[in-house]
Each structure stands twice: as structure tokens, then as C-alpha cells.
Design goal:
By secondary structure, the chain is an alpha/beta fold. The chain has three domains: 69 residues, no CATH class; 97 residues; 180 residues, Rossmann fold, CATH 3.40.50. It is built from 14 helices and 16 strands. The strands form four sheets. The protein has a six-stranded mixed beta sheet with strand order 7-16-15-14-12-13, sandwiched between helices. Strands 1, 2, 5 and 6 form a four-stranded mixed beta sheet that branches. Helix 9 crosses helix 14. The N and C termini lie far apart (116 Å). It is found in: Membrane. Keywords: Glycoprotein, Glycosyltransferase, Membrane, Transferase, Transmembrane, Transmembrane helix. This is Glycosyltransferase 61 catalytic domain-containing protein. GO terms for molecular function: glycosyltransferase activity. Pfam families: Glyco_transf_61.
Length: 457
């Protein structure tokens, strides 16, 4: 009978001969050397992250689809990112990880080290370290001027506008509908306006959204608009027919219904919010400020947060470069994330020229009430819809130009599937500062010429 100390007892399959034991020792030594190299390279290895990597490798299909080069983020001060997307930055005073890249509020000089598949950038100067993207020339949007208000039927005392159910509570598309409903209501200025929504959830969403809630308040207080839900709609109509002899006009406002009466909309919003341009001047008097070369527009950059996509990474650098074209040599850089209706309207009514990436933050641009206003919109490679917000600009009496961030024409790059379009919209922007400086200079010259012509009439 074989006896052995319990601590030495092993199954036959677990015995090591000398060669296998030596092989295992060599493997262990190699593993230790790898750890030392990693420790030296990174300034320390986080064992929690390392354990996660082991689990990640064994279950990568279930756990993540991120590029393998992004699995190990060393610390709060640096990151290694996939260089095929963009350049990563280090020493972040206020940085976030987004779109597989870290961005920071750039404040110092930058140095870059590059390996075969990764790029690490340390920021130490005032210039940004994002990789400059090619672009097409700036192009102006052409869109028909809205038709004059139609000749309306006399005797209509109530006007119902029904919102489409299929816009899925998407803010820009909801704004499309509300602009059209407003236009139809104003076509019948003596009629009582109604907005009908599909259900009570829709109604709650309208009044919870920070911008929509503010706009709905303007419609309620300044136009005496009432909201009713779809399930009550038939009852509402029946009661109206039974209790009065009025004619009820009801429609689902289609996509071909342009925004009209935009100045009245701007006026009632300004009246409700009691806004002016910082107490200094009304936006509609902007053209009367200064003379000759001293006449300068108020320029603003409406950016998107780094936590979201389509952010202009070098926005502060661009603002510094173009400030000489702006009134008081100042360029506002504004973010709408977390901003309410009043803040967004105040920004739109304090600028003459806006540079912005494509995005929902532009949905309120119809409230920009300065004469000769101009919006310059940036589009990422693979996604270009210049007539979406461009038509809103033109119909609300502004110019609209766009810059497509690719060396190719948008008709060659345009994404064909929903998945491709979604991927294209995830791209952040790093436009050439020189290119944008020249573009904004030309827009400012056009604004000055427009003002001179309008002052003569």
C-alpha cells in the first residue's frame, strides 16, 4: 500500500519529468520577463485590469467588440488608442474617452510617439494634436424661398395639426413637425390652434424635453395653443361640432410644408423670454454696428461635447484663429448639452455667423434672428445631408454653407446602409485651421456686403 504525506499526494497525470519541469520553468520565466517589460513601459500594471484582460480574451465575443489595442487603459493620465481612428492624447486636465480616443482641453505643446499600430500623444502646448482631415471646398446650400402664405378659407375658427407618429420622438424630426404646425397655425391667424399627439406618452415626452418644453410654453402663452392626445381627438371634434357652428380644419402636416412667418416666431419667443443681446443691442440691429472694415459680425462656434460624436476637437484653436474677423475680437464656443430652451435661444440670438458640426443642436437655428445670418455646417466622411438643416436656414432667411470632410465628393463616399451611416456619424472632426480661417473670412466678407446692401434699402 502506497503511503505518502497528504501534502505530496499527486495523481499520476500530474507527475513532472525533468524536461517538462524545465520547460514549465522557462515558460514561467518568460512570463515574468513580459510582466517586467510591461511594468517598465507603462509605469505599473493594474492587476485588476490584467484579470479583466484574461476574462476578456476568453469571452471576447460576449464581453466586447472593441479593438484589442484598446483593452488596456493605463491610468488617468494616458491612453493608447488605435491610430486608424485618430491620435490619442495624454495628460488630460478634463478629458474623456470617446470613440476609442481620448481628447482634452488643449493648453500646452505636443509630442507624439508612434509604433506600427498605435499612436500616443502627450499634449504640452496650445496647438491641438488631432490628425487633420481632408475636406471638400465650402459649398453654399441652394433651396427655394418659401412660398407666401396661402389664401385661406374664411370662417375657420379652429385649426388642428396632427404630429406624425413615426418620428419616434426624435428631437430634430419633432422640431420639423412643430415648425410646420406653427406655420399652418399662422396661416389661420384668427383660428384657435390645436396640436394633437398620438398618445399620452408622446405628450409627456414633449413637455419633458428641455428645448421642446420651452417652445411649447411659447405656443401656449403667446398663441393660446392647446394640446390634445389622439385618443381624445374624436371626442374633441364631436364636442366642437355639437357645441358650435365653426368649421374645423384638420391635417397631418407633410414634409413639403415649409416654415413661414419666421419673424413672428422669433418675436414671440423673444417676448416670452424677454431676451436681448446681453443688454447691448438687438440682434436685428446687428448690421448697423460699425462701418467699413470695422463692421464685423458676431461669430460663434456651436460645438458638440467630446462625450458625444461629431465634436470639433480643435474648436478652441479655430476660435483663436478666426477671432480677428469677429466683433470685439471674440468668438463664443458653446455647447448645448444640458442647456435649456432659454440658453439655446440666447446663443442663437447673439450671433450672426455660426460654425457647427451636423447635429440636433442646430434644430433651433430658425430662432437666430440677425439679418444676413449665416450657418456653416461640417459633415463627416460618409454622411452628408446639407439640405436637412440647410433648408431650415434658407426658409428662416439665413444663408447656409457646408464643408464635407473628405478629399472625395460626398456622392462617392456616401454610406449606403443604416449601419454605415451610423458609423460615419460617430466620427469626430479635426478640420484644418487654415482652411476654416479662410472659409470664415469669406463668410464674414459676404455678411458685410449683405449688411451694406440692406442698409441702403
Amino acid at each position: 500500500m502506497l503511503t505518502s504525506s497528504p501534502s505530496r499526494l499527486m495523481l499520476p497525470s500530474q507527475y513532472d519529468d525533468e524536461s517538462s519541469r524545465n520547460s514549465r520553468q522557462i515558460t514561467q520565466l518568460g512570463f515574468l520577463v513580459m510582466l517586467m517589460v510591461l511594468h517598465t513601459f507603462s509605469g505599473g500594471v493594474d492587476t485588476t485590469n490584467f484579470a479583466f484582460l484574461k476574462n476578456y480574451n476568453s469571452q471576447r465575443d460576449q464581453r466586447s467588440t472593441r479593438p484589442r489595442s484598446l483593452r488596456f487603459i493605463q491610468s488617468q493620465s494616458d491612453i493608447v488608442a488605435n491610430s486608424s481612428n485618430a491620435t490619442a492624447t495624454t495628460t488630460r486636465p478634463a478629458a474623456v474617452v470617446t470613440n476609442h480616443v481620448m481628447y482634452t482641453n488643449f493648453s500646452s505643446s505636443s509630442s507624439t510617439t508612434t509604433s506600427s499600430n498605435t499612436t500616443t500623444t502627450t499634449t504640452t502646448s496650445s496647438s491641438s494634436s488631432c490628425i487633420l482631415q481632408p475636406n471638400n471646398p465650402m459649398t453654399k446650400v441652394t433651396h427655394p424661398i418659401p412660398d407666401p402664405p396661402p389664401v385661406v378659407e374664411e370662417g375657420i375658427e379652429e385649426v388642428f395639426c396632427r404630429m406624425h407618429e413615426n418620428i419616434q420622438r426624435h428631437f430634430p424630426h419633432a422640431m420639423q413637425q412643430l415648425y410646420r404646425c406653427y406655420s399652418m397655425w399662422r396661416d389661420y391667424p384668427k383660428a384657435k390652434p390645436y396640436l394633437t399627439v398620438p398618445d399620452s406618452d408622446w405628450q409627456q415626452w414633449l413637455y419633458r424635453h428641455p428645448f421642446l418644453n420651452g417652445l411649447m410654453a411659447v405656443f401656449h402663452k403667446q398663441m393660446h395653443m392647446s394640446t390634445i392626445v389622439e385618443e381624445d381627438y374624436s371626442l374633441q371634434m364631436l364636442q366642437a361640432y355639437e357645441n358650435s357652428n365653426v368649421t374645423i380644419f384638420q391635417t397631418v402636416v407633410g414634409s413639403d410644408y415649409s416654415i413661414r412667418h419666421v419673424r413672428f416666431l422669433q418675436d414671440i419667443v423673444q417676448k416670452e423670454l424677454q431676451l436681448d443681446d446681453g443688454g447691448n443691442e438687438k440682434s436685428r440691429d446687428s448690421c448697423s454696428s460699425g462701418t467699413g472694415s470695422q463692421k464685423k459680425p458676431r461669430i460663434g462656434i456651436l460645438n458638440r461635447s467630446h462625450r458625444h460624436n461629431r465634436s470639433i476637437i480643435n474648436a478652441n484653436e479655430i476660435a483663436t484663429a478666426i477671432q480677428r474677423f469677429s466683433r470685439n475680437d471674440t468668438v463664443k464656443v458653446k455647447y448645448f448639452e444640458g442647456s435649456y430652451f432659454e440658453e439655446q435661444v440666447a446663443f442663437f440670438q447673439s450671433v450672426d455667423i455660426v460654425l457647427s458640426p451636423h447635429g440636433a443642436q442646430l434644430a433651433g437655428l430658425a430662432l437666430m434672428n440677425a439679418p444676413c445670418g449665416h450657418v456653416v455646417e461640417l459633415f463627416p466622411k460618409g454622411y452628408s445631408v446639407p439640405n436637412f438643416f440647410g433648408s431650415l436656414s434658407v426658409e428662416s432667411e439665413k444663408n447656409h454653407s457646408y464643408i464635407y470632410m473628405s478629399a472625395n465628393s460626398s456622392r462617392f463616399d456616401q454610406a449606403k446602409t443604416r449601419k454605415q451611416r451610423a458609423k460615419a456619424r460617430e466620427t469626430n472632426f479635426c478640420p484644418s485651421v487654415d482652411m476654416l480661417t479662410d472659409s470664415i473670412r469669406r463668410v464674414a466678407d459676404e455678411w458685410r456686403q449683405c449688411c451694406e446692401e440692406s442698409n441702403r434699402t
